[in-house]
Design goal:
With about 350 residues, the chain is an alpha/beta fold. The chain has helices at about 1-10, 25-45, 60-70, 85-90, 155-170, 185-195, 215-225, 230-240, 265-270, and strands at about 15-20, 25, 50-55, 75-80, 95-100, 110-115, 140, 150-155, 175, 200-205, 225-230, 255, 275-280, 290, 300-305, 305-310, 315-320, 325-330, 330-335, 340-345. The chain has 2 domains: about 1-135, Rossmann fold; about 155-345, Rossmann fold (3-Layer(aba) Sandwich). Helix 5 packs across helix 6 (about 185-195) and helix 7 packs across helix 8 (about 230-240). The two termini are about 35 Å apart.
């Protein structure tokens, strides 16, 4: 899919721009930085399917690295800012990493790049890590718990989620409020990539992975965003802060998901244009979508590119396109039969 991403990114032109707190990164600066990362990856000898660990805080540098890695068809291994790059690279059998300047401690990270803000990459690594065969079929590896297999998302998994959001929300030159952490699969597939490809003015309340409700509220009141993807926990906090969800009337369309929807919050959500959503990393983060303003506890929405059936003990059986096409276990990529349903529980 590298060529597909390349074509889509080249079509962006001067958009999108990115505002993080008080920092503004114009579209041309954002895309020039991504192009410098493309040159850095090529210059170091990375090839499609090479696994790249990314340990960066949410911000312009992370967006640029993610764009460049997709452009080059690398296999992304995004991890939280507090993750140990050496440990993550060992499990992922990665060839290289991009880490924040302050990350590393006493670890040998001579195989890692350090970004220079939104300007692009710093000096090239001394040498790449020795690694096994590339995995060009896998686009994103989603780290799991110790000893657990990681979900491995293929190109069509990414297309399913990103294009599903774009088709549902129809953002055009949107003011996109972004609050999800971009290193997480949901933040990448449902938030960052759709916002970039809309293209949008991306409004990030702060550099924090999870901006505070007060920062989000201030951003909504100041910028009047038109589109967003919100966790229900944040929606609940905003309702308590404002006394209602009336300030979200500016949102033309958006998603909200998470556990614990109660009747009172559902009633408030019916006065918005937000729609329910269900997903998980092993399900490309997009399984169902609801209609704008249609809310009640237990409502899943309509299946998107998949089949859902009742499973044992209140579980659901999901099969079809959202199911991750592979998994990463013991240093090997294992393809998955997506016709065989997997068991999930949505809160």
């Amino acid at each position: 899919m590298g060529t597909t991403w390349r074509a889509r990114f080249q079509a962006l032109g001067a958009a999108p721009s990115l505002t993080i707190g008080t920092e503004v990164v114009p579209g041309p600066v954002l895309l020039r930085g991504a192009e410098r990362w493309v040159g850095a990856f090529r210059g170091a000898g990375l090839v499609p399917g090479d696994r790249l660990v990314i340990v960066l805080p949410t911000g312009a540098g992370l967006a640029q690295v993610l764009l460049a890695a997709l452009w080059e068809g690398l296999t992304l291994v995004p991890a939280p800012p507090g993750a140990d790059p050496a440990l993550t690279a060992g499990v992922a059998d990665a060839r290289a990493a991009v880490v924040a300047p302050v990350v590393g401690g006493g670890s040998d990270l001579s195989w890692a790049w350090r970004p220079e803000g939104a300007g692009g990459p710093g000096p090239a690594p001394e040498a790449l890590r020795p690694a096994g065969a590339p995995t060009p079929l896998a686009r994103v590896l989603c780290p799991g718990g110790p000893g657990d297999p990681w979900a491995a998302l293929l190109d069509d998994n990414l297309e399913h989620a990103v294009d599903g959001v774009l088709a549902a929300l129809h953002p055009r030159q949107a003011r996109w409020l972004s609050v999800l952490p971009w290193h997480a699969p949901a933040g990448l597939l449902l938030d960052l990539l759709p916002a970039l490809l809309a293209p949008s003015t991306i409004l990030r309340p702060s550099p924090d992975d999870q901006p505070s409700p007060l920062d989000v509220a201030n951003t909504v009141e100041r910028w009047q965003p038109s589109h967003t993807v919100l966790p229900l926990g944040l929606v609940r906090a905003l309702a308590q802060l404002w006394g209602s969800l009336d300030p979200l009337a500016c949102v033309v369309d958006g998603l909200a998901s998470g556990p614990g929807l109660d009747p009172e919050l559902a009633l408030q959500l019916t006065r918005t244009r937000l729609r329910t959503h269900r997903g998980a990393p092993e399900l490309s983060c997009l399984v169902t979508l609801g209609q704008p303003g249609m809310w009640r506890p237990g409502l899943l929405g309509r299946p998107v590119g998949c089949t859902i059936a009742d499973g044992p003990g209140g579980t659901l059986l999901v099969s079809g396109r959202p199911v991750a096409g592979a998994r990463w276990l013991d240093g090997a990529l294992q393809l998955v039969n997506r016709c065989s349903p997997i068991v999930v529980v949505f809160g």
